[in-house]
Predict the 3D structure of the following.
Amino acid sequence: MQNGEMIMTDFFAGLEGVPASKSGVSFIDGEKGILEYRGIRIEELVKKSSFIEVAYLLIFGKLPTKRQLDKFDSDIRFHRRIKYRIVDLMKTLPERGHPMDALQATVAALGMFYPAKEISDEETNYWSIVRLIAKLPTIVAAFARMRYGDEAVRPRDDLNHTENFLYMLTETPPDPYMAKVLDTSLILHAEHTMNASTFSGLVTASTLADPYTVVSSAIGTLTGPLHGGANERTVEMLREIGDVGKVKDYIEEKLKKKEKIMGMGHRVYKTYDPRARVLKDIANKMQKRYKDITLLEIAERIEKVSSENLKEKKIYPNVDFYSGIIYDRMGIETDLFTCVFAMSRVAGWLAHWLEQLSNNRIFRPSAIYVGKHNLNYKPLKNRR
């Protein structure tokens, strides 16, 4: 103890294995490959639920009644539109800028149009939740079109969450099968305990910042290639390889150089990521249905070669490995993949935000100082 505070001398890089909070939102067993949202296995949710229902479950802690779900869904449909000033702001962004940067900037700006500083007010918080879930897909689709000089497509209230997003991207009626596949993917990406973006959002939330700032902070963290950006780089890797016959040499060269294989391995899972298992099954079903997913054969070969070489290290495909292949087949551009991730994970971020507010204490970790002491100031003229 020093000045009444506990002093830790052990250092854990990346805070690996260090509990940062107590949470009832989700649970992972990395050894058994189990992921639960509020106690319900992810495999059951993708079969029986929808993304909007799962978002309600995560945020409010229980499955909704029909009346509650109908209201939540109706409120989200009504609030999909974005103000013309938001659209004008987005038009000033560089068309060659990354969509995740545009999303982060626009979400931060939303907080100016919908002030939500009174975070102790339940009604204010509810409408912030509704707006963030409703408007993120609209922002993503709008920027995807405006960067090519096209006008944003107005949302349609008669379409469900994923149907509407696909419609806003192309202004054509969406394939119901594809919309269902996307809905399943959003469920799988909605929450994943104390990941980097959730932790980033929690640190921001602990300062009692408004929810738009919290989500904007989390989006910024999600952009990194070691987090949400990995799905983009996985597809880029598959295209770089280009042929299933080149996989073995490519992977062995990567391993020889001790370089990371995108989409393989996870900090928590020491077995197959349960989300990746579901997505792989979806990708194979899509291939049987459409017979034109050119990247799937390369991906499955990478998985086989990698597992043969990395089995002892317990490295398997993670959620990013097959999700990009699915989005690519939907016609979603590669640099939008992480935006789709954010459209989903906003549910988890908001769930943790509310949980943090219920028993808040500002995050203020310590650091182990490794610098020098008792140095003297050297005048500018004497410095070399």
User: Anything to note?
Assistant: The domain at 230-330 is CATH 1.10.230.10 (Cytochrome p450-Terp; domain 2). The chain has a mean pLDDT of 93.
